[in-house]
């Protein structure tokens, strides 16, 4: 009898919190809601140290925060969420650390493929963005499988940047543009091809992040104010927000604060977007 | 008995919450708009209070009250970037005052950026005014005059994405159209060299200060801000030297691990 009441109490309390959150989102929706929010997941290791946990637990706590935040973004009406999961620079970390992150990633990607996963529940389409050739075979294959399996989901798009840096993305796009141009020159003849120089649209067509519009808000947790080679090309008109909370500590209040700040400067951003 | 009472209370609470939620949903646009404006009023009030506190702090910093701000290790800031909103960049005298402050603090290499290229038009005037001020305050034969000069780089939006496209074109002609290598392996250093070949040889800024209404880098050349610390200073018209000193001091305390 006591157990049933406890479960009922927990469920009703949960529903009340859910109602309050949805009411708050309904109020926020009076103003412009960002279409795309990007997150730099900084502070997992510091969180583990702060709570006397081993490093792996810091990343797991970070994953729970990620799922919660994705849920909130979906409820708010955000269409694209990008996360900086693993940078090319992070490969320089100690091998056991890199392996721990890769193992966790593999575990979570395989979890996504299950029917009852949060990804299926919320209709999340997943993209893995970055130089996937740098990942080990298992993780890369799982990533490709997850992208195929979620290709029909259409509620929200989650872009997971792994083995990614902005400069690598730019060089990759330049390389692809050059190869495409060379192929056009060879097939159509030298006279026609050489008259055109490579333009910004050619580069942008081959960017990894070309599958999504530019982000409206970029959140980097743990109070750091640098972009660390993340979405440098795409954030010309993006509001940067650096809450002091570590990534596993991020919550609804940070998301609401970010959206309110975005709404505050939205007219200016729209004007700049038209001018650019 | 107690458990039954608890169960009933929880169910009532749930009913109340459901009623509030349905009221918010059905109250229509007017009620929602009012609540939305209240939220934004709270945000504006918060920023007003932060602004007041910031003004007091800036005043105290510029009075030299805090020891840590007096002993600023300026050598850590090798290259400073200042991104200014294009509308605000039209206030040339304010920009000149900012450059004077930066020179007085001890900075030697500064990059000015604005999206529309307003600062490029005022670059000559700014350089001339700074030079005249220096000449009038020091003797012409002073050998240290040249060392104390502020080296100014001025760039705009066209020096960002378009520069990368031009650099890619250089790489196309060098590695693709003139060679038979099937798939040349382009690297980041090839891109850096190509950018250097078309005139972009300045180093990456360590710190970027944004003067404008929004915390946004406004299209500053992407290739150069990989690890740049970005701080928002607020509108140019309310710039304060104390806030500038605090921002530079904050930068000197940052430790970067570059992803490791």
Automatic annotation (TrEMBL), chain B:
GO annotations of cellular component type: dehydrodolichyl diphosphate synthase complex; endoplasmic reticulum membrane
InterPro entries: Nus1/NgBR (IPR038887), UPP_synth-like_sf (IPR036424)
Lineage: superkingdom: Eukaryota
TM region positions: 45-66
The protein's Enzyme Commission number: 2.5.1.87
Annotated SUPFAM superfamilies: Undecaprenyl diphosphate synthase (SSF64005)
Requisite cofactors: Mg(2+)
Record localization: Endoplasmic reticulum membrane
Keyword Transmembrane belongs to the record: yes
Main location, first listed in the record: endoplasmic reticulum
Reactions catalysed: n isopentenyl diphosphate + (2E,6E)-farnesyl diphosphate = a di-trans,poly-cis-polyprenyl diphosphate + n diphosphate
Pathway: Protein modification; protein glycosylation
The keyword Phosphoprotein is annotated on this UniProt entry: no
Swiss-Prot/TrEMBL keywords: Endoplasmic reticulum, Magnesium, Membrane, Transferase, Transmembrane, Transmembrane helix
Molecular function (Gene Ontology), one example: ditrans,polycis-polyprenyl diphosphate synthase [(2E,6E)-farnesyl diphosphate specific] activity
EC primary class: transferase
Assigned protein family: Belongs to the UPP synthase family.
Protein name as annotated: ditrans,polycis-polyprenyl diphosphate synthase [(2E,6E)-farnesyldiphosphate specific]
Organism: Erythranthe guttata (Yellow monkey flower)
């Amino acid at each position: 009898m006591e157990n049933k009441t406890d479960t009922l109490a927990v469920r009703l309390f949960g529903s009340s919190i859910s109602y309050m959150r949805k009411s708050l989102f309904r109020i926020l929706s009076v103003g412009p809601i960002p279409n795309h929010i990007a997150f730099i997941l900084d502070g997992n290791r510091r969180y583990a140290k702060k709570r006397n946990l081993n490093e792996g637990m810091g990343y797991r706590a970070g994953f729970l925060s990620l799922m919660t935040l994705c849920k909130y973004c979906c409820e708010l009406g955000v269409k694209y969420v990008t996360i900086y999961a693993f940078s090319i620079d992070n490969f320089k970390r100690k091998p056991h650390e890199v392996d721990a992150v890769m193992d966790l990633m593999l575990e979570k990607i395989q979890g996504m493929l299950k029917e009852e996963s949060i990804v299926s529940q919320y209709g999340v389409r997943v993209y893995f963005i970055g130089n996937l050739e740098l990942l080990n075979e298992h993780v890369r294959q799982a990533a490709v499988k997850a992208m195929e399996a979620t290709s029909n989901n259409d509620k929200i798009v989650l872009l997971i940047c792994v083995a990614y840096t902005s400069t690598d993305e730019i060089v990759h796009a330049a390389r692809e543009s050059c190869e495409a141009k060379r192929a056009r020159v060879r097939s159509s003849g030298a006279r026609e091809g050489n008259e055109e120089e490579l333009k910004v649209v050619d580069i942008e067509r081959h960017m990894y992040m070309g599958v999504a519009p530019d982000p409206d808000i970029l959140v980097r947790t743990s109070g750091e104010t640098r972009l660390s080679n993340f979405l440098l090309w795409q954030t010309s008109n993006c509001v940067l927000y650096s809450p002091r909370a570590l990534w596993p500590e991020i919550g609804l209040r940070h998301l609401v604060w970010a959206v309110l700040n975005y709404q505050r400067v939205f007219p200016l951003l729209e004007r700049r977007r038209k001018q650019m | 008995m107690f458990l039954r009472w608890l169960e009933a209370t929880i169910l009532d609470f749930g009913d109340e919450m459901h009623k509030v939620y349905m009221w918010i949903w059905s109250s229509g646009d007017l009620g929602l708009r009012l609540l939305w404006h209240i939220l934004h009023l709270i945000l504006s009030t918060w920023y007003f209070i932060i602004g007041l506190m910031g003004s007091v702090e800036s005043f105290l910093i510029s009075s030299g009250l805090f020891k840590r701000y007096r002993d600023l290790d300026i050598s850590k800031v090798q290259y400073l970037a200042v991104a200014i909103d294009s509308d605000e960049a039209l206030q040339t005298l304010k920009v000149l005052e900012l450059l004077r402050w930066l020179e007085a603090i001890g900075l030697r290499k500064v990059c000015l950026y604005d999206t529309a290229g307003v600062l490029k038009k005022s670059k000559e005037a700014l350089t001339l005014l700074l030079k005249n001020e220096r000449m009038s305050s020091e003797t012409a034969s002073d050998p240290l005059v040249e060392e104390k000069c502020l080296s100014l780089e001025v760039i705009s939006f066209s020096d960002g994405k378009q520069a990368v496209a031009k650099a890619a074109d250089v790489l196309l002609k060098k590695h693709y159209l003139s060679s038979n290598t099937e798939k040349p392996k382009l690297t980041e250093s090839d891109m850096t060299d190509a950018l250097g070949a078309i005139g972009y040889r300045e180093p990456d800024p360590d710190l970027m200060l944004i003067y404008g209404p929004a915390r946004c880098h406004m299209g500053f050349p992407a290739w150069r801000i990989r690890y740049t610390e970005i701080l928002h200073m607020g509108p140019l018209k309310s710039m304060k030297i104390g806030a500038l000193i605090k921002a530079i001091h904050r930068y000197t305390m940052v430790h970067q691990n570059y992803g490791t």
